Amino acid sequence: MKSIAFYRILIFGFFLLTYNCSRSTDETTVVLRLDGEDWGIYFNNNADILSNEFNANNLDITTVPSNFRNLNRSYRGAIWIRKSFDITTEQHQKSLALQLGKIYQSDEVFVNGVLIGKNNSAFGKDPDEFAFGRPRIYPIPHDLLLEGENVLIIKIDSSLSTSAGIITGPIRIVTYEEALNGNLYDSLVELIFVGFYLFIALFFFINFFNLRDKKEYLSFSILALIFSAYELSKNEVHFFLINHFVILKFIEYSFLLILPYGFIKFIQDFFELKPFKYQKIYLLTQFFFIAVFVLVHNPVFWYNFIGYWDIHLLVVIAYAIYVTFIKLREQTRGSAIHLLALVYLLYSILKEILIERGYLNSPSSLETSFLVYLILMTLALRFQFLMMKRKLQNRYERLKEADSLREKIFYYMDAMISGPLKSMKDKLISYRESTQKAKDKNLVKEVIEVQSSIDNVMDDIIELSRLEVLKEVPFKEQVNFISFINEVIPEDDITYSIKVNPETEIHNSLDLINSVVVRLVDFPPFKEFNHNDLIITQDLRGNVHFRFLLFHSNPKVSQRLFSDLVENYNTLTPIKVKWAIILEIVRLLGAKIDFKIIKKKYLKIDLGISAIVPVSELQPVKESPSTSQSSVAKTQKEDWKVTLKRIWKFLKETEIKIPNFKKKK
Prior knowledge:
Layout (H helix, E strand, L loop, with lengths): L1 H18 L10 E4 L2 E8 L16 E5 L14 E9 L1 H4 L3 E5 L2 E2 L1 E6 L2 E5 L2 E2 L13 E4 L8 E10 L7 E2 L5 E4 H35 L4 H20 L10 H26 L8 H17 L3 H11 L3 H17 L5 H22 L9 H68 L3 H33 L7 E4 H6 L8 E4 L6 E4 L1 H12 L9 E8 L5 E8 L3 H12 L7 H16 L2 E7 L3 E8 L15 H9 L6 H14 L12
Parallel strand pairs: 15-17
Antiparallel strand pairs: 1-13, 2-3, 2-4, 4-11, 5-10, 5-13, 6-12, 7-8, 7-11, 8-9, 14-16, 17-18, 18-20, 19-20
Helix pairs in contact: 1-10, 3-4, 3-10, 4-5, 5-6, 8-9, 9-10, 10-11, 11-15, 13-15
């Protein structure tokens, strides 16, 4: 029940997040969207672009957001971007703010030539030393904006090797409240993802303590924990708790550096692989990088290093895909799900690298892809657990069957053998104390007979105990019924006739069918009857019936045997054990057995077994020509007693003898 509840929460949360993770912005709060391809760009350390006399027509045109480093990789200096925008009278009456996406590295923002923000600080009063990669919100003074045309100029300074500019959106002028709510909403969505990562990590960590041999549970929980810590250190909310960019950036990069090793370790535990040759060196290398970051207390250096380091993540994913593909060819359980999750994760990592370098202007899907990866692998791990549980349950059932078998054998041995053993003991004592040689010979003979009876009943006890613990037949086969039954019925032990469609087939345990037919034919009480005939017929549904018709001149014999077959035994005898074996075989075959007394002298036993016959072949069995002629000539009504005698005589006369068949038991 706990697993079902866990899956319901997991799936519900997944669809809740993936269905609509983006907040729909009220269009009345969006004053002006500034992103686009009409921004002017100026590579120059001089601030002459701020002058009213500057000719904007001389500027090159670029797209914002984008990575300006891709436009001029050799340039290291101030990069200016400029855009004109119009404000209506209605918009001018609102409290507005400029909302920018992630900026690399530092920025100064001017509206109509006046500074309104610098490096994440409104109006540049107390700018942060480092704030790259963080979104910006700069309030715009009401008196600064003009109704009509206004000019926005942004100065970008970056010593980062791979990034310079406004890399991501949004870039717009909105109400100040909407700008704050938008950033807060994005942060809360990321926190919800982090909550799911932590929940999954805790779930498998607890399960690991119950299943210590499942190393993949521990490595999976550690992987989810590392990624949740990495995402948490990137979230804007933590600046409300610790407003220290360097410390938080160091924590973020530290978890990022050890994340690939945790990913590799989980894959190895999941597929039960040995570590590759230099795996420990790889882990020590990552810790060495962390130590270097401690010594080199410069976030710009850290960013530049990670900008080249993250390329090797593609190698890690490629290794994972290679291993998974091999396991998929080996038909390893869970490999298909893992390969599907890896493909999406690879796509998201490639996309993230392109976004960070400014080659792609698109929302990041890294958090979503990793959540999908964790959910899919959670399902794969739980599926493996259920399969393992099923194997253990089957093993437990087999052990339980063995215990039950042992108990039943001991029970039957006590019921069936304790008496003969006591009798044997008494006879042996008499033999030892006897002095008469003639009497000694009789005692020895009696002891041998008791021993022989014990040997015979022991085989039946073991067989009955084995059948009682079975819940279903081990395996089934499908064969033609006629060819099979001809090999089953013992030769000369019984007269029988077969009236079954030649196309009939049976799909069941052939050994058990063979056993039950032979045991019925050889059942000791049947030997007392004067006649024992078997008619194998077929009903309208195609099922096969073995109908034994036993006749005894003394009605009491038939009645006594009928009572013995249907009564619940309080005491066991060798005959009752043999009959119990027959009933157990009937149960396993899914068959039915009925008993009936006819005219006090005839005992009818009907054993019905399911069979298969083509629908077109389900026709009444054809009668012989002699029977057809006699039935046509018989136009007058007969008494039912005469009819029964006539049918019995016909069956006796049309019996089919099948010679030279081996006797099977």
